[in-house]
Design a protein that fits this description.
This protein folds into 3 domains: about 110 residues, 3-Layer(aba) Sandwich (Rossmann fold), CATH 3.40.50; about 230 residues, tm_1862 like domain (pyruvate-formate lyase- activating enzyme, Alpha-Beta Horseshoe); about 40 residues. By secondary structure, the protein is of the alpha/beta class. The chain has 13 helices and 19 strands.
């Protein structure tokens, strides 16, 4: 059978899609990139915002139009949170939440949508995910920040066994992968039989030959000096996505975040002191319920002072079932739009300043894909996007280049 995948949302979703794709490939099925070529189209959804929900519904309808004969399977966080909404859409053949992902092949076989095969000649996942692999090391969150729906759709905290993670990394190396991204809902909470994140990373570095290891999002309160000291090894990418959400202490308190702006700033300073050339990227929510002009200015000035390499800016989007959705002082849309514009201006200036620091420097770049005739795109270890003219195919090559 021909299987097409599409993924919305976080790196954890991407990791789970990769695992699903490898399971289908190992079962003898072919992976295809276009829904038009597929017998089965599998959409792994996100539900962190209303926009994510809307995009999921759009992709489902689009898939049905582009291939009326394909079986459409919808999974992921939206399917976990509101399965009836997706079933009532009338376009999906199967809606299955996060817990059902691991048994998806058996479900499809049982319902007659998937034909069993003993073939070993399938077009495999390594041909699609070869450059950078996402590896799930942890799932679940019990923090219940006031605005966040994630703990309601991924509420069981679980860390993957270290031996299984290391075996996955070794397998990706065999397939030619140059970089792995360790991901989860809260990777800083990784704890398998007393083994913490820094222990797992140290074992990956010592027991595998992977060229690059990158960490996904971390919470400021989850860092340790022991983890930062590991970044003396240049195989660890000097890039931290350190979630902020607001630079105002009063807003952070209403959000139920577990740190102050002062604690965040101290952690950022420690990271920069211990990790050369480091990029710190972040998320910021503007227009959180009750956010005053003064609180927004505190957040804006904090972001200007911290000089982030990249800021992902989100206007507050109420999620039904979360505490923030029912809070008083919902900020008018017009004000949220203006504050988003101002924060985006700061984000663009901050990102430009970070990139310009490395003009004339030589950094390693992992080349990912061709973006135009003879032009290739890749990223440095500290996640600067780089473009290069090259007549040869350099996909999945790691090379040192001088940035200009």
């Amino acid at each position: 059978m021909k299987i097409a995948f599409e993924t919305l949302g976080c790196k954890l979703n991407q990791a789970e899609t990769e695992t699903l794709a490898r399971n289908f490939s190992d079962a003898g099925h072919d992976l295809v990139k276009q829904v038009e070529d597929a017998d089965i189209y599998i959409l792994n959804t996100c539900t962190v915002t209303q926009t994510a929900d809307s995009k999921s519904r759009h992709l489902i309808r689009q898939a049905r139009r582009r291939n009326p004969y394909a079986r459409i399977v919808v999974t992921g966080c939206y399917a976990e949170r509101a399965p009836l909404d997706l079933e009532n859409l009338g376009e999906a053949d199967i809606v299955i939440g996060n817990q059902g992902k691991t048994s998806l092949i058996k479900r499809l076989e049982r319902e007659g949508y998937l034909t069993k095969t003993l073939s070993s000649s399938s077009r495999g996942a390594n041909s699609i995910f070869r450059t950078r692999a996402f590896i799930k090391i942890q799932d679940g969150c019990q923090n219940f920040c006031a605005y966040c729906i994630v703990p309601y759709v991924r509420n069981h905290e679980k860390s993957e066994p270290d031996r299984e993670v290391i075996e996955q990394v070794k397998q990706r190396v065999k397939e030619g992968c140059q970089e792995v991204v360790l991901t989860g809902t809260r990777i800083g909470a990784y704890d398998f039989n007393g083994l913490r994140l820094e222990d797992l990373v140290e074992r990956i570095l010592s027991e595998t030959d992977i060229r690059r290891v990158r960490l996904s999002s971390l919470q400021p309160q989850e860092f340790s000096i022991e983890l930062l000291k590991l970044f003396r090894n240049n195989r660890l990418c000097p890039h931290f996505h350190l979630s902020l959400q607001s630079g105002s202490d009063s807003v952070l308190k209403r959000m139920r975040r577990r740190y102050s702006s002062c604690e965040y700033e101290k952690m950022a300073a420690t990271i920069r002191a211990l990790v050369p050339n480091v990029a710190i990227t972040t998320d910021v929510i503007v227009g959180f319920p009750g956010e005053t002009e003064k609180e927004f200015e505190e957040s804006l000035n904090f972001c200007r002072r911290l000089n982030f390499a990249r800021i992902h800016v989100f206007p507050f989007s109420p999620r039904s079932g979360t505490e923030a959705a029912g809070m008083e002082g919902q900020v008018p849309v017009k004000i949220k739009k203006e504050r988003t514009r101002l924060m985006l201006e700061t984000a663009e200036e901050s990102a430009r300043n970070f990139r310009e620091r490395f003009s004339g420097e030589e950094l390693d770049v992992l080349w990912e894909k061709q973006t135009g005739q003879g032009v290739w795109s890749g990223v440095t270890g500290n996640y600067i996007r780089v473009y290069k003219k090259e007549s040869n195919n350099i996909t999945n090559k790691l090379s040192a280049v001088k940035l200009s």
